[in-house]
Fold:
Amino acid sequence: MEKARRLLKEIYGYDSFRKGQEAIIEGIVEGHDTLAILPTGGGKSICYQIPALLLPGTTLVISPLISLMKDQVDSLRRVGVSAAFLNSSLSAGEYREVLRGAMQGEYKLLYIAPERLDAPMFQSLSEQLHIPLIAIDEAHCVSQWGHDFRPSYRQLAGWIGRMPNRPLVAAFTATATEEVADDIEAMLKLNEPRRFVTGFARPNLSLAVVSGVDKKRFLQRFLKEREQQSGIVYAATRKEVEQVCGMLQQMGIEAGKYHGGLSDTERAETQEKFRFDHIRVMVATNAFGMGIDKPNVRFVLHWQMPGDLESYYQEAGRAGRDGEESDCVLLFEPADMQVQRFLIEQGAGDAERKSIGMSKLHMMMNYSRTQRCLQQFIVDYFGESDVAACGKCSSCLDKSEAVDRTQEAKMALSCVGRMKGRFGVTMVAKVLKGSRDKRLLEFGLDRLSTYGLMRNLPEKEIADWLYWLVAEGYMRLSEGQYPTVSLTANALPVLEGKTAISQRVRAAVRQSGSEAASHASPLFEALKLWRREAAAAEGVPPFMIFFDATLRDIANAKPVTVDELLSVKGIGTAKAQKYGETIAAIVSEHASQDDRGTGGGYSASVPKPAPPSSTKLGAEQSELPSHLQSLELFQQGMEPAEIASHRGVGQVTVEGHIIRAAGEGNEVDWDRIIPSGQEALILAAIEKVGAEKLRPIKDELPSEVSYFAIHGVMAKHGMQG
Ligand code: ADP
Structure:
């Protein structure tokens, strides 16, 4: 394993293996078939790339992800490993060329899309090549129990089974319940496989379910808080994709769209723009996914609830593959349940398939409504029960108090009771609203005593309220295309006044942490700018040069010699040689600017070549930024007024410093910012008037509540004014 570790450092620039990697690699190299279940971003590729380098011959990598293949092959070539791919993106000429090279054993790794393989080609590959290992990525596609079954995978399994000198087979996936894992082993006929499950938890993802908000306003604010971040918004229908994308473009956001109704060329173009960071937000249906693998997706926002938790976690999991803090937000309205239910009922599949679909949908619904840690909920679903609460999902952060809703529940339930199970949710909502709808009047429903009981609420809100009561089990919907609504036994105690009903309203989403961190460092910004230009010059996506995390590490470590550069995570020998001098130049330039005290005024273009990389420039440790100086004094126990007079600035400035520092993730004692008892008041005021402007919030509150406290609450709950 010494060799494996050396390759890890030399080629990838990493010092240590991640959980599971070493054991998986060791197992494969020792000759064991393997099934490895690693979460997205867990580092599967290294698990087959290193064995491929250690074993003689050409390793085949089967993957349905076309752009991932291209990225990996490009990345491998950049670090001097011979690799190639065969998929539909190649022209006939290129295809022949790669195949010719492959037959001559020119590649250590050959990536192949399963659709591109037919039996004769597979046979000639296996006859002419020495293939020590076949790595199968996204192996859940071989199982009919998974959520993304592909017949081409099943076919492949058959061919492998019939190979005369069957190579080792290593299967990889991120999503597999135990049932699916068993099925993968059986379908691929793995030979006494070693199974590794390193866990499904994704510690760098902050999961959130947000309901009861104006979705458009929420999205606008969410994106405003993440001005430089790249992300995906998933919507259920093409029409919604068009609408949301249009809305974002109107706001001046670089948004693109992706759905099944667009031509192949349009889709491919948009996808490339997204990969190259020319488009910041991709609005898409679930058609967008298998083809992408962009490591720096900072958020995935679902415009509504998908039909099952596997799909949700896979889509949400496209955030943060590079290991950086990322957000996954699900905007949930109870009516989403109806849409998904309709899709299942109308969809293909026999009764059994539909009933599996319905139970998966219920699980998804439970996720959307649970008050348990969301990360725990998901990993539990995949069979892992001993994971600690994540401490940063919307459930863990939920400090909101439940609101008593008994009165509204009684109104709704008694109305449903009076309508005797003959109407759907929409009609009940119209009755409660007091609508003059023609059909309503024809049925004489305006004569019901509950008619107009909730007339001061919008009809849509009433309908949502009714769906909520369904989800909570007080009412039920009938089967079929036009479900009617009726009461369940649980409704009775409520109507009799024996049970109270309360509801939590959750809207807070963590403030974007990495964004805050990036504001703090002009050097990081300068490195990003350089990367953008270098990427454009080389015609590759920026992440292929370096990930954000690597740039941030450089900005922190400020390396100016090759040795120092090599100690930064993510920089191997090849990249250090290629970019080392330029990076050292940028770092030095910043160091000297910091010395001159002109931080921030760096040049926007790629700097001149650096001095010889072994001469270390005298980069003094720059002084602590002003806001952190205030924070330090605050942490030492001084009050803002004292700090202000000590530093000779205004108190408001100092308070601003402390809030900014807190927003950047520095530890603060919130109790010193928010006097006891005020937090709930402030939250209630924000709930009422929104968090866009401060003045209306202040006006809602008693005069003793200060702006400092309001800002404090907003920073604590990740909201921005
Ligand atoms: P996935 O499991 O989703 O296929 P990848 O193989 O693409 O994940 O790896 C995700 C990211 O983690 C990549 O950027 C990869 O370079 C990085 N990575 C993998 N192994 C390590 C490691 N041992 N140390 C640090 N980063 C790693």
In short: The chain has five domains: 2-197, 205-393, 403-503, 520-596, 616-716. Residues 12, 14, 17-18, 21, 38, 40-46, 295, 321-323 surround adenosine-5'-diphosphate (CB under 6 Å).
